[in-house]
Structure formats: structure tokens, C-alpha cells
UniProtKB/TrEMBL annotation:
The lineage of its organism: Bacteria, Pseudomonadati, Pseudomonadota, Alphaproteobacteria, Rhodobacterales. InterPro entries: Cyt_b561_bac/Ni-Hgenase (IPR011577), Cytochrome_b561_oxidase (IPR052168), Di-haem_cyt_TM (IPR016174). It is a multi-pass membrane protein. Belongs to the cytochrome b561 family. PANTHER family: CYTOCHROME B561 (PTHR30529), CYTOCHROME B561 HOMOLOG 2 (PTHR30529:SF1). Signal peptide: none annotated. Its cofactor is heme b. It comes from Seohaeicola saemankumensis. Its main location: membrane. It is found in: Cell membrane. Pfam families: Ni_hydr_CYTB. The chain crosses the membrane at residues 12-34, 46-67, 87-108, 144-167. Keywords: Cell membrane, Electron transport, Heme, Iron, Membrane, Metal-binding, Transmembrane, Transmembrane helix, Transport. This is Cytochrome b.
Amino acid sequence: MQSQQDRYKAPARWLHWLVAVLVLAMVPVGFLMVQQGIGRSLQNALFLFHKNMGVVVALLVLLRVLYRWRNPPPPLPASLPSWQRRVSAATHGLLYALIVLMPLSGYVRVRAGGFPIEVLDRLGVGSLLPRSEALANTAKSLHYAGALALVVLLALHIGAALQHGLIKRDGIMGRMWPPHR
Ligand code: HEM
């Protein structure tokens, strides 16, 4: 039986699942919107969604990092082998780095390229960066490399979660699921 101390607190769970759903939407939308021949109006709608939802993701990630800093995660069960602890810590660390890098590089790519981010423009939040093709291109490459790394790490992360939740049934999945409770 799991005690309250073995599980993430409700705000950590909600933030985890909200960010998860949004990131899982941002990745395919990102890859789709840069394809040739999908039609101008679909492409515009996907770009609009991607850039503006990216701002929401950035704010949620900031909240998540601040919350985690004040509320460290519950300890893993002592039964977990040490190699699994190391892989888990490395995967989680890299996933955090990537969910910070993706909105940042996306922002720099768009603003240094001189493009709008409609929600920020409406709120009167101007660009924090000067226009620079070189900076925009560097950010574009980083955003692309980050997306590929994110796909690999998400596959690892989701695979491990499903293995714990469905095959081993060792209570690791119950630390984060369900979001309420
Ligand atoms: C967690 C957040 C994000 C994820 C997971 C994500 C993911 C992706 C992916 C998978 C692509 C396709 C990569 C490619 O083929 O080049 C992409 C492209 C793009 N993303 Fe994001 N993105 C995120 C946040 C943002 C934000 C906040 C912005 C801007 C405000 C943004 C702007 C763009 C732009 C402009 C492109 C097209 C790049 C180009 O070809 O010029 N992204 N994104």
C-alpha cells in the first residue's frame, strides 16, 4: 500500500499531465506544419496554434520548475535497482532541459526572424530580441534537434511508465496517476 509520502502532490500531478498533453500535441503539429503542400490555410492555423500554445507551455513549465524547486519529488521505492534510478534521473533531467529549450528556441526563432506571436502582441508584449537571420537560423536548428531528442526521450519515458503501470504493477505509475487525489 502506497502512503501519501510516496506519491507526487496534486499540483505536481496536474502540472505533469497538462504539460504532457500539450507537448504531445505540439510535437506532431510542429512536424506537420513545416511540410510542403498541406495547404496555406491549414498551415496558418497550425502555426497560430503552435506559437501561441507554445507560450502557454512556457508558462506552465516555469510554474512546474518553481513548484518542483519548492516541493522536491517523493523518494523512489528502495526496491528499485540503482541502474534504474540513474536512468530515471538522467531521463527526467533531460526531459526538463528539453521542455525549457523548446519554447525558448521557438521564441527566439520567431522573434529574431521578425514574425508575430499573436497572443503576446495582443497583450502588448513586444519582442525581447532584435531581428537577426543568423540568430533565427541557430534557434531553428536547435528547435529541430531538440524536437528529435524529445521524441526519443518521450518514447523511453512513456515506455517505462507503461511497463511499470501495466506489466510490473509496482506502484511507480501510481506516484503520478491519477492527476487528482
Ligand atoms: C514544448 C514546446 C514546443 C515543442 C514540443 C515544439 C515542437 C516543434 C516541432 C516538433 C517542430 C518541427 C521541427 C522542424 O521540422 O523544424 C517545431 C517547429 C517550429 N516551432 Fe515549435 N515547439 C515548441 C514550442 C514553440 C514555441 C513557443 C514557438 C514560438 C513561439 C515555436 C515555433 C516554431 C516554429 C516557427 C517552427 C518552424 C521552424 C521552421 O521551420 O522555421 N515552437 N516545433
